[in-house]
Amino acid sequence: MDDVGRRRASASEGPRRKKRTRTRDSDAFVDFTELAERDARLASHASWETLEDGTRRAKIDFTSWEATRALTGAILAVRHGARGWDVPEGHLVPTTTNRRRYVEWIERLLAVSAPEGVKGGEGVVGLDVGTGASVIYPLIGASTRGWRFVGTDVTDEALRSARENVERNPHLEALIEIRDARDENGGRANVFRGVVREGETFAFSMCNPPFFESMEEAGKNPNTACGGTEIEMVCEGGEEAFVKRMFNESLEMKHAVHWFTTMCGKKSTMTKMRALFHVLRVPAIRTTELVHGKTSRWCIAWSWSKEAAANANVPLPDPERLAKVAKFVREQTASTK
Ligand SMILES: C[S@@+](CC[C@H](N)C(=O)[O-])C[C@H]1O[C@@H](n2cnc3c(N)ncnc32)[C@H](O)[C@@H]1O
């Protein structure tokens, strides 16, 4: 259940409701050795040790940008069938686990409320604001769910790299369009205005905004080397300003997007936005925390759809519970054969 639903929840949901909504995915475990055995670039960036039983084990140096890039490339190739993935020198290397969790959360939102014509994942079109050189969300969403995407960005390098990553995967090309969000007059790029075309509709929008106000604030995590250029990491006013701009522009196209969503690097951004949406009486609001090891990110979704508003208290389907039910049904069916 999301935070809004929890606050308004009826007594029938009982006192044992979960305290917080968190999104985990079931296949977060990554076997580096198995991946490196299947992916030559990762193998060349791994260090190999031989165990007592003679088997070899791959180790990844997370302080090396090349090694983290090779790891993401290997996961995309082996798990998602997205071959030849790359990003230009120094660009942000996305970790795939929390990106997958964000996509999974959107799937759960759509299970509770989706626009007309979208049923069971069919006909889903998403808008990825700031798709980046990596085009990571469209690659994951298209390869795992068959969703269609428009991915936007504002730099020549990101747009070129994103298009190349798509072109290297002809099986995904028909599902992903990369769009330049820059103002033709050279002004500050909008998020939705001028990007969403007349009559165009999306089941959702998603965004991993630049989180920081300066490169100093972005700092460097000594344990990982994920890279990140200034335009990827920084924007005027930081993520709070970016999300507010996104919200303000969303007011002009309330019904072009069924679920507007964004990730936040800081919990305080999510809670401030949630409070603002309450005050402004946004009819449907959902939040979640994406947890990966010691790192958390937060997401917030808002919608003006009548159906989303009517289902504001409906708990999002719990993937772990659904997987258990599916397993139980499979076992029962097998035992009656
Ligand atoms: C943190 S990066 C996210 C990249 C990728 N989606 C990911 O999750 O790794 C933010 C991206 O937003 C882009 N960006 C900044 N302002 C934008 C705008 N107004 N419209 C679209 N993209 C924008 C930046 O160029 C950058 O590629």
TrEMBL record:
One of its GO terms (molecular function) is methyltransferase activity. The keyword Transferase applies. SUPFAM superfamilies: S-adenosyl-L-methionine-dependent methyltransferases. It comes from the Eukaryota. One of its GO terms (biological process) is rRNA base methylation. S-adenosyl-L-methionine binds at R99, G130, D153, N208. Belongs to the methyltransferase superfamily. METTL16/RlmF family. This is U6 small nuclear RNA (adenine-(43)-N(6))-methyltransferase. It comes from Ostreococcus tauri.
